Amino acid sequence: MTSTSQRNGQTILELAMSSKNVTSDMVPVERTLLVIGSKNSGKTSLIHSFFDKNEKPKPTLALEYSFARRSGKSLTKDICHVWELGGGLVFKDLLSVIVQKTRGRRLSVVLVLDLSKPDILWNTMEMLLEEIKIHLENVPEIEQYNQINVKNVEDKKFLSPLPIPLMIVGSKYDVYQNFEPAKKRVLCQCLRYVAHTYGASLIFYGVNDAVLVKISKEMMSHYGFGTPYPKNHIYDSNKPLLVPVGSDCFDKIDNLNEAGSIRSIHKYKSVFASNFKQISLESGSHASSTDNTDPLNDPNYADPLIDESLKKKQEVCDKNISTTQSTYNIIQSWANFYLNSSSVIRTTYCI
Question: In whole angstroms, what is the distance from residue 73 CA to residue 331 CA?
Fold first, then answer.
């Protein structure tokens, strides 16, 4: 049989193209990751690990975009759009751009928390999650895309998940390793509670740990391309946490079986703050001296062509400023002369 053989007057090619699945198979599946977190928390390093990039990460000034492709079930490669919000809370208003653009469809949030700075961890997490919730509420008729398969059915009544998937990443695990065991236990307990309540996955990440880099790539791939979760689950506070969404259990987190026990975010916030005194983010007292570094003086942004062009523009501006200053001085001299001359003032008034 040749390729021109017909059935009901159609060739094999026409029959193939008329199949219902062909059109959908030709369209790639597109998902979006929105990476947020405190300043210098390791967001760019996490994205570079996901992309297998060995470049030294540069500071993210505002909102940066990148993307990746992967062969999937369709005939074309699936696409993962990655948006990174820089500056911590400085550019939080830009979150609406991504939320409104995607309308929450196939959008996942990756919240990166700096484990080496527990004094700003809770406030950062709380404020960013609140910002995300507000922007999602402003999307009309947003659908529930965060389908959670909760292992313990009894936990469902205590959950308040976002309408979109959420992944929480505790970065700089190498620093966390040196914490006291009691501090580790409290930090892990509180993060596990928040993650489980919001319907989020939770992992710890270290850029210099090959195993943790591999796990982070697998988890990012799940949210970015729909691949399976990592197989292992780790709940031990003395090890890097690996808790896929829905796999945790409130009873394992807090061991509250007493009658009248209260289970709430406020309770865990109080527990966390009593062990790690929180710094107000508005006060700016947590900022380092390098936070306000001018990008023009940052060697990471050096570019010979742009720098030379900028230098010439600066010389023109300086010359114009000098000319303007000279003109201003002449006008000021004449003004002083007029003001000090009563005859001129009277003449001026007469005119």
Answer: 75
Q: What is the pLDDT of residue 217?
A: 95
97 vs 253: CA distance, rounded Å: 36
Average pLDDT score, the chain: 79
Q: Which two tokens stand for residue 277?
A: 């005194």
The DSSP annotation for 284-351 comes to TTT--TTTT--GGG-GGG--HHHHHHHHHHHHHHHHHHHHHHHHHHHHHHHHHHHHT-HHHHHHHHH-
Distance CA 100, CA 305 (A): 37
Q: To 10 degrees, what angle do helices 304-339 and 342-350 make? A: 90
Report the amino acid identity of residue 135: H
pTM reported for the whole predicted model: 0.73
Instruction: Name which of 130, 203, 114, 140 is nearest 162 in CA terms.
Output: 130
Tell me, what's the pLDDT at 259?
44
Location of structure tokens 């990655």:
82
Q: Look up tokens 């992967």; give the residue.
A: 70
Nearest in space to 110 (alpha carbons), one of 238, 237, 245 = 245
Rounded Cα–Cα distance for residues 43 and 177 (Å): 20
Of 74, 52, 76, the closest CA to residue 66 belongs to 52
Helix 181-197 with 118-137: angle, nearest 10 deg: 0
Of 58, 130, 118, the C-alpha closest to 92 is 130
Assign 9 a pLDDT band (cuts: 50, 70, 90): low
Which tens digit of pLDDT belongs to each residue from 113-136?
A: 999 999 999 999 999 999 999 988
Joined together, the tokens standing for residue 236 give 């031990």
- Residues of the chain with pLDDT > 90, as a percent, come to 41
Give the residue from 128, 120, 115 showing the smallest Cα distance to 37: 128
Res. 320: pLDDT tops 80: no
